[in-house]
Design goal:
Length: about 450
């Protein structure tokens, strides 16, 4: 009988579920507590990571990029503390922001933190890990980098010699040629204070400059003046968008060397409105008559001296800096010309006309000198127009026509050469070259 009872007892499984549940309850409680503490720590880490991101970004905003490294650290710290203030159950929160890596135009900020999340089930974790840990360690970091546009001083060197007063369009050239038959057909609106000395054959004895205006012919130099003035508005809008400062000094060059159009106190000015007004007044060199610069100065029409102008402007430009707020500005020499010298003959002349006069492509040796100082050169080549119906062109200019553009491009810094031909838009060309110069200045740092 006893044997039967014992066999029945061992075969009975009705109490196993309760026993197994009781045995399983302990690890379930342990794992649940651990999961809750881990989840809470993970949520706190997510919030602190977001705070670190916000702090790093706060140190590299456009406004903050103009301030010191210590100001950037303070801003980052304040933002992190504000964002982390709502996180509860944190002990030993330590924020680390090393001195930012800052080259002036580039700032890299790293925000790191370490903290401990207080566990709600410390005894459970202690039993599982065999330690007395009551917190869960968390940490994180965030890095942000920002680039600021450099401050730039622009020196505009604009050719206002008589060759730049050619009609700006094919139609204008044809109009000028058709109305100057007494001169053999001239496309240039040369400005003379005493045209009677040349017997030009124009109505009322007027010079070609006045003739062009009366005929409604727009010249290249008029377009250059308009384009330069418009460029000041573009520069003003661009500097605001880039949170930078652009200052302008404007000069023309001809036989008289360097002529100041706008350079208050002898240096570039950030008053771009006044610069635009001054640029609008740029005009061609006025001579006395053919071969005479003044009534007493027979200069044989040597009215374009690029080398003298380059030497003079090189002495005016100081050594450039990085363009950062804590440094001197970068510098860009902006040249607009048709690229043909017409000066007194010398040993350096490769195309002498006679014993006193030389016409040749620009000698670009001074361009190299300027670039070697770290000053960028942007060149807008207003292409010298071939005039195959003109005997002077055929004899003296045509032999080196193909060299003009090459020399002008060699003067420019890499990527800062632009050419515009007859009927081309000088305003658009200057705007494009200006933006290229700004982009190049930014990439050099």
């Amino acid at each position: 009988m006893l044997d039967v009872f014992m066999r029945r007892f061992f075969r009975d499984r009705r109490g196993n579920v309760a026993i197994i549940f009781a045995l399983s309850l302990i690890p379930i409680i342990f794992l649940t507590g651990m999961a809750l503490d881990f989840t809470a720590a993970a949520q706190k880490r997510m919030i602190l990571n977001a705070a670190a991101d916000a702090a790093a970004l706060a140190a590299v905003t456009p406004a903050m990029m103009t301030q010191s490294n210590s100001a950037a650290v303070t801003a980052a710290t304040n933002i992190f503390n504000a964002e982390a203030a709502g996180v509860t159950g944190i002990t030993n929160l330590v924020l680390t922001i090393p001195t930012p890596n800052n080259s002036g135009l580039v700032r890299t900020v790293t925000v790191s933190y370490t903290a401990s999340s207080v566990n709600s089930f410390p005894n459970v974790l202690a039993l599982l890990t065999k330690t007395s840990e009551t917190t869960w360690p968390i940490s994180g970091s965030s890095t942000a980098t920002s680039y600021s546009a450099p401050n730039i001083n622009f020196y505009l060197l604009l050719d206002n010699s008589p060759s730049m007063d050619i009609a700006a369009t094919t139609a204008g050239i044809n109009t000028m040629v058709a109305n100057t038959s007494a001169q053999g057909g001239c496309a240039f609106a040369c400005h003379e204070s005493h045209p009677a000395a040349d017997d030009l054959g124009n109505p009322g004895g007027e010079d070609n400059y006045t003739l062009a205006k009366n005929l409604g012919v727009v010249t290249r130099i008029e377009n250059m003046a308009t384009a330069t003035s418009a460029l000041m508005s573009t520069a003003s809008a661009t500097e605001q968008a880039n949170t930078a400062t652009y200052a302008m000094a404007i000069y023309t060059f001809n036989d008289n060397g360097l002529n100041t159009i706008y350079a208050p106190s002898g240096k570039p000015s950030s008053n771009l409105t006044n610069a635009g007004t001054a640029a609008a007044g740029i005009d061609v060199l006025e001579v006395y008559s053919n071969n005479y610069l003044t009534s007493s100065n027979n200069n044989n029409d040597t009215d374009t001296n690029f080398e003298t102008a380059m030497t003079a402007i090189n002495t005016l430009m100081p050594n450039p800096g990085t363009g950062a707020s804590n440094s001197t500005p970068q510098e860009v020499l902006f040249i607009v010309s048709d690229g043909v010298d017409d000066e007194v003959n010398s040993s350096s002349c490769s195309q002498p006309l006679d014993g006193t006069r030389c016409q040749q492509p620009f000698n670009t040796s001074m361009c190299t000198t300027v670039k070697n100082r770290g000053i960028m050169i942007a060149v807008l080549y207003t292409a010298y127009l071939p005039l195959p119906t003109n005997s002077w062109y055929n004899t003296w200019i045509a032999p080196f026509q193909s060299q003009i553009s090459t020399n002008m491009q060699s003067c420019a810094s890499p990527g800062l050469f632009f050419s515009v031909t007859t009927d081309g838009d000088i305003t658009a060309a200057m705007q494009t070259l200006f933006q290229l110069a700004i982009a190049t200045a930014r990439l050099t740092q």
